[in-house]
Predict the structure.
Amino acid sequence: MILNDLSRHEADLCFALADPKRVDIIHTLEKHPYNVNELTLELGIPQPMTSRHLKILRERGLVQSTRHGVSVTYALSDPRVLQALELLSEISK
């Protein structure tokens, strides 16, 4: 990957992590996979907003989705994203 592409990819990842609700989703998915309705109840945010945040996280490769009939379950694609969030938190102290 050339530098410009790498920078764009990193910026996309930062965008995905720039919203507190998306970070909440990532921390919630640390426990176990959830479907949209479960995440909506767990986080107390409207279902359309949950779906929109999940779409952004999925498009950036941070979560993966698995279809089970009519339900879609979301899980972390790579648990190291939690380490990255921890590192960002430590850097900003």
Summary: The chain has one domain: 3-91. The helical segments are 3-17, 20-29, 36-43, 47-59, 80-91.
